[in-house]
Automatic annotation (TrEMBL), chain A:
It is found in: Cell inner membrane. The complex is composed of two ATP-binding proteins (CysA), two transmembrane proteins (CysT and CysW) and a solute-binding protein (CysP). CDD domains: TM_PBP2. Residues 288-305 have a biased composition (Low complexity). It is a multi-pass membrane protein. Residues 69-272 form the ABC transmembrane type-1 domain. Residues 285-305 are annotated as: Disordered. Keywords: Cell inner membrane, Cell membrane, Membrane, Sulfate transport, Transmembrane, Transmembrane helix, Transport. Part of the ABC transporter complex CysAWTP (TC 3.A.1.6.1) involved in sulfate/thiosulfate import. Probably responsible for the translocation of the substrate across the membrane. SUPFAM superfamilies: MetI-like. This is Sulfate transport system permease protein CysW. The chain crosses the membrane at residues 25-49, 69-95, 107-133, 145-165, 206-231, 251-271.
UniProtKB/TrEMBL annotation, chain B:
Residues 3-237 form the ABC transporter domain. Keywords: ATP-binding, Cell membrane, Membrane, Nucleotide-binding, Sulfate transport, Translocase, Transport. PANTHER family: SPERMIDINE/PUTRESCINE IMPORT ATP-BINDING PROTEIN POTA (PTHR42781), SPERMIDINE_PUTRESCINE IMPORT ATP-BINDING PROTEIN POTA (PTHR42781:SF4). This is Sulfate transport system ATP-binding protein. The keyword ATP-binding applies. GO terms for cellular component: ATP-binding cassette (ABC) transporter complex.
Length: 305, 366
């Protein structure tokens, strides 16, 4: 009995560090963050705006830049819905069913994380390129994949496909199948079960995955760089465009475009934080908040300005 | 709506969860499937519901073969151990779900849905919670909502999988009495699974005791408790003292005690187990015929009863004896005292390893 009474203060004394240790750790962390995160972030905007708002704006509305922005959004707009469907299907299969080769599928989903993006790009060149497996057939039918928009989309899809599935698998595994079973016993069809029970249960995880996937899709450089061919105004995404401008010593324009990417990333992070906050306080505010948050990522993705 | 279960077998890999189980549940009865975890009771319930497919055998509803009927067409109400309420829906919407997902042709109009849901919520005495979400309810409230949701589709049978398993003792007791009253009111054929013998005995019209994929016994709560058919039922239902002995020509020799056992007339020199409930032992300070001598090792008052641990003299086995508190206060047995134990009711089973209990018939009828 006496140990029970004595233990709380004992525990807190032994597990709490002295003041100075706490402060030192915080200071080290802050210094590190400042050096490697805040300063570069500020530098992007400082460099972008160095020659004034006029130059900044001109760099963004210039045709090649606009084409690059549009292509970036196009790639994300195709890759994200594709991975959304694939991610939900894969997570569903892995979390709710037992089948042969399940662990192989789980491992394969992680492949894009493990493989260097450059390799991913090269694989597509080998498969769809002029001298690749399907190259002659594609050329015969006048289809261009490599050094064209389809290749960029393919590379983006490949690189981003683990994000949503990875987010959903542990969530769906934790939730189990009881609610779905309850829906079926009550007479719901497969679709009704999915739309009315499964989807509402995974919506926060799904949104989180979509945001990570979108952020990565817009920022992807390596794989896209290999398949793009860097044709200005045609096959340049925003990250590639930034690189080209930089290599041409056009720093103000390069940083202007970089600032757009940075802003997009910041918006995504803000939405992500909001969702994390929402998931931590799901009840009873969940039903009204659900619709509000449901709109936000859509706006961030869909609105290029 | 009666349920007939015919020779159901279910295997999970090499493990046989159910081995040729047959069971009849007449319309309107409340039946408990009772057994330890892993005995196959939940699997049997899920097969009746259609959530699990048997490897062999049939499930008949009202004489009609429903084995191949899809779960959503079976019209069963199912209550899950962990409620399985839809977390993102209000209590009202949870109960309304089964009506809302119907095809347009059979879906009742909104006003009727509202009326039926509110009626069901009134039935489970929770109509004042219609606007709440499951996370805002207590465990007992959630389970009552789950029951209302299951009843909303007007099920022909109601299946409950450990319905009170996740609740604390007080709520559990209250809820099972409530379930009993509710069943008396609505009379829907119901099967519930439990590992809690007290729950089964208190709530059910019939108790089906299961063990390792078999049915051990079927009977009213009184029958299974008073006349267990097998050693397993004896041990599973309540405390019991076990004596090793031998049986020969209708007489059992149990720890030095000779007990007539006429049902084993034909048995010659076989090992036997004898079971005596702790409250079926008479304690006395006087020696007499048919009594075991023993020394009191410990006296433990447990609420309304007092439990004595007595070391039986011939074998050194510990025997538990339960007497009423009144009796104890009158007699004041002390530890260390020598007493004589006389079993009032003792059941002998021959050679338990080969399960020589009265051979259970293949087809159990309730």
């Amino acid at each position: 009995m006496s140990t029970v009474i004595l233990s709380p203060p004992l525990v807190s004394e032994t597990t709490t560090e002295p003041r100075w240790v706490q402060r030192t750790l915080i200071a080290v962390a802050l210094a590190f963050l400042t050096l490697f995160l805040f300063v570069p972030l500020l530098a992007v905007f400082a460099e972008a705006l160095k020659k004034g708002l006029g130059v900044y704006w001109a760099a963004l509305v210039e045709p090649d830049a606009r084409a690059a922005i549009q292509l970036t959004f196009l790639a994300a707009a195709v890759a994200v819905p594709f991975n959304l469907v694939f991610g939900v299907a894969a997570a569903w299969a892995i979390a709710k069913f037992e089948f042969r080769g399940k662990s192989v599928l789980t491992t394969l989903i992680d492949l894009p994380f493990a493989v260097s993006p450059v390799i991913a790009g090269l694989v597509y060149v080998l498969v769809f390129g002029a001298h690749g497996w399907f190259g002659p057939w594609l050329a015969e039918h006048d289809l261009k994949v490599i050094f064209a928009v389809p290749g960029i989309v393919l590379a983006t899809v490949f690189v981003t496909f683990p994000f949503i599935a990875r987010e959903l698998i542990p969530l769906m595994q934790a939730q189990g199948t009881e609610e779905e079973e309850a829906a079926i016993v009550l007479g719901a069809s497969g679709w009704q079960m999915f739309w009315r029970v499964t989807l509402p249960n995974i919506k926060w995880g799904l949104l989180y995955g979509v945001i990570l996937c979108t952020a990565r899709a817009m920022g992807e450089f390596g794989a896209v760089s290999v398949v793009s061919g860097h044709i200005r105004g045609l096959t340049n995404t925003l990250p590639l465009h930034v690189e080209i401008l930089y290599n041409e010593y056009n720093f103000a324009a390069a940083f202007a475009c970089a600032s757009v990417l940075t802003l997009l990333a910041l918006v995504m992070l803000a939405v992500k934080t909001f969702i994390e906050w929402q998931t931590r306080h799901p009840h009873p505010a969940a039903p009204p908040a659900a619709t509000a948050a449901g709109d936000t990522p859509g706006r961030a993705v869909g609105d290029p300005a | 709506m009666s349920i007939e279960i015919r020779n159901i077998t279910k295997r999970f890999g090499a493990y046989t969860a159910l081995d040729e189980v047959s069971l009849d549940v007449p319309a309107g009865e409340l039946v408990a499937l009772l057994g330890p975890s892993g005995c196959g009771k939940t699997t049997l319930l899920r097969i009746v519901a259609g959530m699990e497919r048997p490897d062999a055998g049939q499930v008949l509803f009202h004489g009609e073969d429903a084995t191949d009927r899809h779960v959503r067409e079976r019209q069963v109400g199912f209550v899950f151990q962990h409620y399985a309420l839809f977390q993102h829906m209000s209590v009202f919407e949870n109960v309304a779900f089964g009506l809302r997902v119907r095809p347009r042709a059979t879906r009742p109009p909104e006003a009727e849905i509202r009326e039926r849901v509110m009626k069901l919520l009134a039935l489970v005495q929770l109509d004042w919670l219609a606007g709440r979400y499951p996370a805002q309810l207590s465990g007992g409230q959630r389970q009552r909502i789950a029951l209302a949701r299951a009843l909303a589709v007007e099920p022909r049978v109601l299946l409950l999988d450990e319905p009170f398993g996740a609740l604390d003792t007080q709520v559990r007791k209250e809820l099972r009495r409530w379930l009993r009253r509710l069943h008396d009111e609505i009379h829907v054929t119901s099967v519930f699974v439990t590992h809690d013998q007290e729950e089964a005995l208190e709530v059910a019209d019939r108790v089906v005791v299961m063990n390792r994929g078999h049915i051990e016994q079927i009977g009213t709560p009184d029958e299974v408790y008073e006349h267990p058919a097998t050693p397993f039922v004896y041990q599973f239902l309540g405390n019991v003292n076990l004596f090793h002995g031998r049986v020969h020509a209708g007489v059992a020799d149990v720890g030095g005690l000779r007990v007539p056992s006429p049902e084993h007339d034909a048995v010659e020199h076989a090992a036997a187990l004898a079971y005596v409930r702790p409250h079926d032992i008479e304690l006395s300070r006087q020696p007499g015929g048919g009594a075991l001598r023993g020394t009191v090792a410990e006296v433990r008052p447990l609420g309304p009863i007092v439990r004595l641990e007595v070391i039986a003299a011939p074998t050194g086995e510990t025997v538990e004896v339960e007497i009423t508190r009144e009796r104890y206060q009158a007699e004041t047995f002390r530890s260390g005292e020598v007493l004589y134990l006389r079993p009032r009711q003792l059941r002998v089973f021959v050679n338990p390893a080969a399960n020589a209990a009265p051979e259970p018939a293949r087809d159990f009828a309730i």
